[in-house]
Amino acid sequence: MSAPDLDDPLHEYELATECVFDGALLHVRRDRVRLPDGRGGVREYIRHPGAVVIVALCDDGTLVFERQYRYPLRRAFLELPAGKIDAGEEPFACAVRELREETGYRAARWRHVGVMHPCIGYSDERIEIFYASGLEQVGHAWDDGEFLEILHLPAADVEARIHAGEITDAKTITAFFRALPLIRGAE
């Protein structure tokens, strides 16, 4: 997380902080803040360790996707490979690990595409976006209790599914469009 801009007229100053919930993945905080007009306020938010998402391009021009059940919404979603950054892990190392574990691919070429903040109103989560190509299938290593279907979709199909509302996952949509110039450059 970058240092706050204390000269920003919209900056809110933390006065006190407390832990509301400390889970295995998520940590909920409640802060008392001083608002820009000097009054007090309360901010509740989720601390998240960060994550990566990978736009992986196969030699045949298709993209590697996963179909995965997401319990909070009680249905399966089409997503790009992604995963949580472990404590002390660099984002690139996480991307390499997650691509291999979830899809069974190893990539010869990598490029950092950017970062996104998916839930700025209630979480500090950041997702680092990577583009991977020169893929080689080496076998997946799913975590215990992880169930995935791996699909290979052409970019035009992905874009059509996004516009049709079939792909609604924010990290997938953002990463796809951020990497689209690279995808089109490889066609």
Helix residue percentage: 10-25%
Largest beta sheet: what is the strand line-up?
7-4-9-8
Name the poorly predicted regions. Answer: none
Query: What is the average per-residue confidence, as pLDDT, rounded to a whole number?
Result: 94
Order of helices and strands: EEEEEEEHEEEHH
- How large, in whole angstroms, is the Cα Rg? 19 Å
Report on the biggest sheet: 4 strands, mixed
Strand fraction band? 35-45%
Q: What is the molecular shape?
A: elongated
- Provide the structure class: alpha+beta
What distance separates the N and C termini? Answer: 35 Å
Number of strands: 10
User: Treating each run of at least 4 consecutive H or I residues as one helix, how many helices?
Assistant: 3
Structure report:
With 187 residues, this protein is α+β, with helices and mostly antiparallel strands. It is built from 3 helices and 10 strands; from the N terminus they run E-E-E-E-E-E-E-H-E-E-E-H-H. It has helices at 91-103, 155-163, 170-186, and strands at 13-22, 27-34, 40-47, 51-56, 62-70, 75-79, 82-84, 105-116, 127-137, 149-154. The strands form 3 sheets. Strands 7-4-9-8 form a 4-stranded mixed β-sheet, with helices on both faces. The relative contact order is 0.19.
Question: Topology of this structure?
Answer:
Elements: E1 13-22, E2 27-34, E3 40-47, E4 51-56, E5 62-70, E6 75-79, E7 82-84, H1 91-103, E8 105-116, E9 127-137, E10 149-154, H2 155-163, H3 170-186
Parallel strand pairs: 4-9
Antiparallel strand pairs: 1-2, 2-3, 4-7, 5-6, 5-10, 8-9
